[in-house]
Design brief:
The strands form two sheets. The chain has a five-stranded antiparallel sheet with strand order 1-2-3-6-7. Strands 4-5-8 form a three-stranded antiparallel sheet. It has three helices and eight strands. The termini are far apart. It has a single domain, classed as Peptide deformylase (Peptide Deformylase), CATH 3.90.45. It is of the alpha+beta class. Bound molecules: zinc ion (ZN).
Length: about 180
């Protein structure tokens, strides 16, 4: 049975820590944490989650883009568990788009990110994997990777004026359903 975990909120020191690599992927606690993170992500309408967000400072994240109440225009994909992830290559091009965070509730920020990246990680089965990610999915990865390094999206803002409330954000999405904003 997986559990719904409590989300660490901005101000909790665990979100400002550098997370530790995971060496024993088949260990029970790692597999339990993966199951609990998948459940927690699904229940909270997130599109990604990182282990420090549930108080576990380990290098484990999940990218799981899908349309939901918090991100109506997100593309659909299978949840992908990534252990000890890093970026191998990235585009020169960056783009700004809206991000929110389960650990920073109530607001969204316009965050610059690379538009295309090549990443490497170990799967939940212990296999080393390379993958190309673009656009919104690349954005989710970069957001979650930041969590493993003690950063939140607020740290990436070019200006405090690039912050709006969730309510305003959802209004903008309704106004432009084709989705320049996410
Ligand atoms: Zn976050």
């Amino acid at each position: 049975m997986t559990k719904l975990l409590q989300i660490s909120q901005l101000g909790d020191p665990v979100l400002r820590q550098t997370s530790q690599p995971i060496y024993q992927i088949q260990d029970g606690w790692v597999q339990t944490l993966i199951g609990d993170l998948l459940t927690t992500l699904r229940e909270s309408n997130g599109v990604g989650i990182a282990a420090p967000q549930v108080g576990q400072p380990y290098r484990l994240l999940i990218v799981a883009s899908r349309p939901n109440a918090r991100y109506p225009n997100a593309p659909e994909m299978q949840p992908t568990v990534m252990i000890n992830p890093h970026i191998l290559k990235h585009s020169n091009e960056m783009a700004k788009d809206w991000e929110g965070c389960l650990s920073v509730p109530g607001i969204r920020g316009l965050v610059p990110r690379y538009t295309a990246i090549e990443v490497e990680y170990t799967t939940a089965e212990g296999k080393l994997q390379q993958q190309q990610l673009t656009d919104f999915v690349a954005r989710i990865f970069q957001h979650e990777l930041d969590h493993l390094n003690g950063l939140v999206f607020l740290d990436r803002l070019e200006s405090v004026q690039d912050v709006i409330t969730d309510q305003e954000y959802l209004k903008r999405i309704v106004d432009s359903p084709s989705g320049e904003t996410r």
